[in-house]
Amino acid sequence: MSGTTAADGAPPQENPPTPHQADPEEDDVEEDGAGETAGAGGEGGKKKKKKKKPKKKKVEQSDPPRVGLSKLFPDGNFPEGEIQEYKDDNTWRTTSEEKRYNDRMAMEDPETTYQNIRKAAEVHRQVRKAAQKFIQPGRTMTEIAEYIEDGTRALVEGDGIDAGVGFPTGLSLNNCAAHYTPNAGDTIVLQQGDVLKVDIGVHVKGRILDSAFTLNFEPTYDKLLEAVRAATDTGIRESGIDVRLGEIGAAIQETMESYEVEVGGKTYPVKPIENLSGHSINPYQIHGGKSVLLVKNDDQTKMEEGEYYAIETFGSTGRGRVIEAGECSHYAKSHDAPHVPLRLTSAKSLLNTINKNFGTIPFCRRYLDRLGESKYLLALNHLVAQGIVQTYPPLHDQRGSMTAQFEHTILLRPTVKEVVSRGDDY
């Protein structure tokens, strides 16, 4: 993905033609067998060849990524994700004329979920590819978050309600499993022995692409990462139209618990974090109402055609259960926020800022800082107290344990299941 943006047109010539030196692309003439100029319209006339159009150079992504996708995909068609056929009683969908027709109609609609979420997925793939090289021990959490978010905004070509960052970049370390991103003044530096969850969100017209991976920089916890990645792939494989959510959780748990990690001569079983889950996604709503738990449960709710889900799993060497702890950074306006009178003028002003720039897309304090908001904590806490804004504090397993996360967004199309965020990396 490295490279610079190439300008359209022919490359500069090292030796430009002089008045006595013919330019082969401009003044080629045809000669007859005697070496005389063949006339097109009379004796001695010249016939010029049609001037060759210089080939346009392919636009490449820059490093760091800053070239918008409209330049890389000018036709507006973005790569399809990994295709998986439905299992068991749903295999008929692949060849059904009715379902194939429905799929084609959705494909041809320029405003469809498919192209919007595929665009978000391509942004995610390109940004995370660069981020995986950038993220190294010695970087601060703020440097990492801003690198990812600046790239996301540039590639998706938006920074607000129409398109932009889908939620604050999660950079949860070690026993912190989720919902940490640095606030202003954060001084945490990534260490060689850390296990870092990188959770990146991108949205296009409210269609949120949610995908995450885990990085470690020494082999101690390789098996933990392997277990969680395998469990996520299991969850994706088992998902499908009419599949019950509780059955997916049982399959995830079975895969996760087949792994163990040896640390300092002691063996730890890998446990699924029982009170975290994957989830359906609705337009402008990251948690759409359905949950895909990571353990066996009795939820008989079925997945439905046209829905899309974040299939994410979390594994831990600890107790396999998280609690809220630490300073909050993640916030979101409630999807069903009540209409209540606000007594603080500052709260009214802050709510206007939230409505204008985020709507119900999650945000963090750094995003308010970027917009020029200051001394807003009292107003923000007032919106929380009134039930208008929700908080999402960091989630931790027991101290000393390690946690990992892998996540993909899947789209339940009428004919097939599309893992839209799949890439060469995971």
UniProtKB/TrEMBL annotation:
Substrate binds at residues 179, 287. It holds the Pfam family Peptidase_M24. This is Methionine aminopeptidase 2. A divalent metal cation 1 binds at residues 199, 210, 407. Keywords: Aminopeptidase, Cytoplasm, Hydrolase, Metal-binding, Protease. It is an enzyme of class 3 (hydrolase). Residues 46-58 have a biased composition (Basic residues). Cotranslationally removes the N-terminal methionine from nascent proteins. The N-terminal methionine is often cleaved when the second residue in the primary sequence is small and uncharged (Met-Ala-, Cys, Gly, Pro, Ser, Thr, or Val). A divalent metal cation 2 binds at residues 210, 279, 312, 407. GO terms for cellular component: cytoplasm. Its main location: cytoplasm. The keyword Disulfide bond does not apply. Signal peptide: none annotated. Its cofactor is Co(2+); Zn(2+); Mn(2+); Fe(2+). It is found in: Cytoplasm. Residues 1-83 are annotated as: Disordered.
